Amino acid sequence: MAGGSTVQEGDYNTEINVVPLVDIMLVLLIIFILTVPVATKAVRVDLPKELNEPTETKPEDINISVDFTGTPYWNDSNITIEGLRKFARIEAGKDPQPDVHIRADRRVYYESVQTVMKELQQAGILRISFIAEQPTSG
Predict the structure, then answer these.
(1) Which end of the chain is more exposed for a tag (fewer CB within 10 A), N or C?
(2) Are 52 and 134 in contact, with CB atoms under 8 Å apart?
(3) For the domain 62-130, what is the CATH code?
(4) Are the C-beta atoms of residues 87 and 79 closer than 8 Å to each other?
(5) Per-residue b/e over 95-106, b at no fewer than 16 CB within 10 Å?
């Protein structure tokens, strides 16, 4: 073997080949550069601050409660969804419409509250609000 070095038995290449590692890191860097602007893009919304003003309840206001089982109540009377729909249509025809206050148990499934809201909106009720308790300090 003229002019070349010979590898003898027992000699090992002890150098680390970093080329595949650099290739993988560059690919990951490009992926992150492309995906971060897409992931952080959001609609700018001016969210309300922690200010909860007590509502003034009037005698003509309607209180709809939804207990933890999802059962709706119309001014403290148990009611079905069909009954809710019927009473909501009657109230929607009044001028001016009464305000509707929804009080939902914190353990109720969102679907039950959504069903009540859908029926009120389809009946033509314009003013729907949620009632919540002030957190107790201390």
Answers:
(1) C
(2) yes
(3) 3.30.420.270
(4) yes
(5) eeeebbbbebee
